[in-house]
Write a structure and sequence with these properties.
By secondary structure, the protein is an alpha+beta fold. It contains six helices and 13 strands. Strands 1, 2, 5, 6, 7, 8, 9, 10, 11, 12 and 13 form an eleven-stranded antiparallel β-sheet that branches. It is elongated.
Amino acid sequence: MEIQYGKMVLHGILAAVFYLVVPFVLFYFLELYGIMTFSESFRISIIIFGIIGIVISILRHAFPEDTSANRLVRFGATVYSGIFLFYIFGGFDPGRSLGTYYINTPLIQVFLGLKIIAWLFLGSLIIKGLQYLIEAIELRKKKEYRVKVKKEFKLSKFFKVLGILASLTIAGYFGSIIFSGLNLRVNLHDTFPPPAYDDGGTPLNFTDDSLNITIGFDVGNMGLYAINNVFLNAEIHTVTTDNAVDLPWYTKIGSSPIPYQNTFHSFTQTFDQNITISIDTAYIEGLLTTNGDLLFKISFSTLYALIFVNLTISLPVPWTHPP
């Protein structure tokens, strides 16, 4: 059996690009722009998995296409790809659900539940692996196995068609998410309405006062998927203030008592939505008499295209007390 050295070298180089060069270039730019950071142990594990993947890719192309050895190596490579994806999606982490990812930056924190994507990839690889295993057995025994679904098919071809359909489904799903994401708009109003202040009929006593700040926004969802079960909360934190006694630094001073809930259907525009933040009574006097820098934290969770999203956005806002 002739060993295909040229193909082994070529595909070894391509595998090195896929398993090592692309991930580490991606890591570099994600860290450069402060989007994500990666631990040293994670980098080392990627290198180990990558080297194994390169070796398997070289072996996969060592034997001619029409041999059972070729199909057995392809089956092993597919199994390894499944293990690699299972690791990437957190399948080997105790206490962690499959497909959970965190992105943490100073102004944005995101939790993503990508379980549907993980299972789509793994299901596609299982089908592909079965195709190679059946082809290896057929080539070794020089015998075709067949299955009948309305009409008779070669069993390996049946799994090949299933694999193609699975790949097309995944490609279509990702394409629809990209299209929908590009047609999703959330517009936070540039100016907030004046704070609603009630002195409770006692101008010199702040203990019975109420102060509410309303944030307005619009949502345009012209994509294919509804934004389901939206839960939106908001908080206000101080950063620095001119009077740290009445309005202490780095302190939560208010939150939304009632979360905003809604569903934004596909191909719809929703305008003039709002959520109200109530200021804690202990900080009303300080907020009415002190300038400073505040941080608005807006958190929402939703299910979008079968992906769970929990997002917190922090918005620095300069504060000037009312005259």
